[in-house]
User: Fold 3-hydroxybutyrate dehydrogenase from Rubrimonas cliftonensis.
Amino acid sequence: MGDDKAAIITGSTSGIGLGVAKALAGSGMNVMLNGFGDADEIESIRSGLASETGVDVRYSGADMSRPEAIEAMVDEARAAFGRIDVIVPNAGIQVVSPVEDFPLDRFELLMRINLFSVFHLTRLVFAGMKERKWGRVINIASAHGLVASPYKSAYVAAKHGVVGFTKSIALEGAEHGVTCNSICPGYVLTPLVEKQIPDTAKARGMTEEQVKRDVLLAAQPTKEFATVQQIGALAVFLCSDAAKQITGAALPVDGGWTAQ
Ligand code: NAD
Assistant:
């Protein structure tokens, strides 16, 4: 599927983003990784993926909360690959707090990373996609883009925002060969989820084991976590010709959570 196509996957040094980057690189696309972490570990992920797949794998440490850093990352990707055909805005953080105590700076930071960066990345690559008459915007939203849980007001607001943004962009790209969809994962056992278990336990007065069983998987009828490989495979499918008429959709990968 490659045809020298190139993708930027934000927040891809870990978890779902890394799973999507591996899947897209495996399908033959050049990829730009992004995210935070230990420099040596990131370099070993980058070079390992390049040698496994034979595609060009680059890395940018751009901070998705800063529009000027997003612009610099896009310039770097364009210089390296000559084009950007696919974006997967995925970088995200979680903050768990009752609304009356919600730290103001954390609410704003979450919005900048989880929602505003999706707008910035899209606006910077959209004209090129339209010109080439092919593009894929694959937003990693969440089941929390469709339904809510308590104590996650910032996250739920941002993810519902991503799902709405997706629909608008789908309409803007519709006659130009550019599709835009949201993938809405349920719980995937990544560092993001592991980190919120202690806070959720505190907010609900539960043990960490109870949170996993009675809060996280309680919402998921299959009683199984979704995997990063399953999300990566869906992203590859959305890039295929078979998915050309799928646009503006919010696609749950949530073990039946949002069917309830
Ligand atoms: P993760 O914590 O494993 O990975 C997050 C990635 O984002 C990391 O690479 C991190 O370095 C990067 N990141 C964080 N802040 C950044 C910033 N300011 N700039 C650039 N990169 C930044 O998380 P994950 O679980 O893989 O989550 C990825 C996405 O999937 C998020 O948008 C999250 O909301 C969404 N999601 C996750 C789950 C889940 O259960 N894990 C469920 C639904 C949706």
The CA atoms of residues 146 and 160 lie 6 Å apart. The two ends are 36 Å apart (CA to CA). Strands lie at 6-9, 30-34, 57-60, 86-88, 135-140, 178-185, 250-253.
